[in-house]
Amino acid sequence: MSTPIVSVHELKVHFPIRSGIMGRVTDHVRAVDGVSFDLMPGKTVAIVGESGSGKSTTGYAVMGMQEPTEGQILIDGHDRARMSRSERMATMRRLQIVFQDPVSALNPRMSAADSIAEPLQIHGVGTARDRRIRVQKLLDLVGLPRSAGGKLPREFSGGQKQRIVIARALALDPQAVICDEAVSALDVSIQSQILNLFLDLQSELGLAYIFISHDLSVVRHIADDILVMRAGKVVEQGPTDDIFSTPRHEYTRQLLAAVPRL
Amino acid sequence: MMSVPRETQAQTPVLSCTDLRIEIGGNPVVDGTSLSIAAGETLALVGESGCGKSMTALGLIRLLPDAAHLSGGQISLQGERIDQLSERQMNRLRGNRLAMIFQEPVASLDPLMPVGRQIAEALSRNDTLTSTEVRTRVLDMLTRVGIDRPEIRARQYPFQLSGGMCQRVMIAMAMIRQPILLIADEPTTALDVTIQKQILELMADLRRETGSAVLLITHDMGVVSESANRVAVMYAGRIVETGSVAQVFARPGHPYTAMLLRTIPRLDGPRKQALPAIAGAVPDIRDWPSGCRFHPRCPLATDHCRAKAPPLASVGVSHETACWHHDRVATELT
Predict the structure, then answer these.
(1) Full DSSP string of B261-277
(2) Model's pTM, two decimal places?
(3) Pairing assessment for the beta strands A208-213 and A176-180 based on DSSP bridges
(4) Which residues from chain A sit within 8 angstroms of residue B235, using beta carbons?
(5) Taking CB atoms and an 8 Å limit, are B48 and A262 in contact across chains?
(6) Which pLDDT band, with edges at 50, 70 and 90, does B1 fall under?
(7) Distance (Å, rounded) from C-alpha B292 to C-alpha B305?
(8) How many CB pairs under 8 A join A and B?
(9) What are the start-end ranges of the H helices in chain A?
(10) A221 contacts in B (CB within 8 Å)?
(11) How far apart (Å, rounded) are the C-alpha atoms in residues B266 and B285?
(12) ipTM value
């Protein structure tokens, strides 16, 4: 069996609550309280839950944007906590993240091509000419015309902006992308276009996803495995089909019952 | 309540508008919308961002933002024209017979006033109740919207309540005057699914109890299917289809409705397969396509569609659609 791209063991992220004039730590918010899962190459693990469940914090910890309080995060079998600075930089190339709101994720004064090329520049990949060619390939990959490269974010619709953000996330050829509510802000007719793009990219590039979402219909469509989180804890986890056909935990059943049916 | 005989009440819609037009900077954001809502009925106005659904709602109660203005059409409340009323008359109407709730309950409440007092304010605007009567009715209303320990909650400020609870407070404020019409603009979009279910059920209960008409603005077809009787689908400033929820969902007559219903992932649909997507993007207000505004994204479009906008035409019992090729929708798009 191959090594998981991401392996999370008993992850805990606790935030201190300070009170009084001395700002003494009086308690902790257990935002993530013992989460474990493996992400295999080419697969999708979804984390679902309501606001405050800790699903996004889990994603940030995997991404290295949030220091874990306890637990281990292995990237390609290597413990992130024991990595040198340069090793951390290298893992950043393997893992990328796409957020909910493409408007705030893009610099309004930077052309689409410059935004997409930025990670290549930061990591010193290729010559300027190589980067230009790479940007054109990325535009093709996410279904934007090559002429889009010269335009500013405001010239694009919401769905097109999210395509630019996805192209940028793919610039460094990552093995996995964390999608944090990546289709939630999009219109219904655009949401399915982007979901199709995620599925296409997965089969073309062998990408793995950690798909963080509150939307159970979307998650069911795209994920192989699901973690259901509530108040920092995983209440149920397993293959998508099992979770939806025979939910074991009462909370999973409540969530499923609350989804409006078409 | 008003002393309208029962039959008249049943026949005259609570609210109706014909050929409503709203412009922003010379661009028609709402372009000839006609609607009517009967007492005790929920009409869902559904569409994507920028289609004009919220502007329609704001236009109906004349609360448009400064940049927008009503440029045509008639609006009637219980048979009386209200589109020509003065701001003062309109204000009285909004306090007495109309109520509105919005997507962001926390932003709609005054952060510096206890929620109980805010509900009392809604009540005491025109009435002459004693403070004890007001207090009793506020606490009753809080209980009815499902808030535990109302005496304690009434003294709390919005930041001390969850989003779901703030929306219950908004509903309490809206319903305490027993409005004949409640306009709810994406009332559950910012809430978690379990809370959404509770709020939609609460709105349905109150509608049944008070006989209010509800205009529900939403982008969520699931919400439409679970909580509305009738639906009007908007696209690029126009209503493209309207009818009972059962009819429209079972036999959509407009390509946009049909494709929208197919493109949404379902809990009982296939997994990990390409969804039947609608190509292209929602058009911009400043650049609306000619003829039928859906034609650039429509697989059934012909030259006729590009040249001439189709009118809403009947395709069944109180089921209308604006499509030149509605007879092909069922076989080719569902």
Answers:
(1) HHHS--TTS-SSS---P
(2) 0.90
(3) parallel
(4) none
(5) no
(6) very low
(7) 5
(8) 107
(9) 55-63, 85-94, 102-105, 112-122, 128-141, 158-170, 188-205, 216-222, 240-245, 250-258
(10) 265, 269, 271-272, 275
(11) 31
(12) 0.86
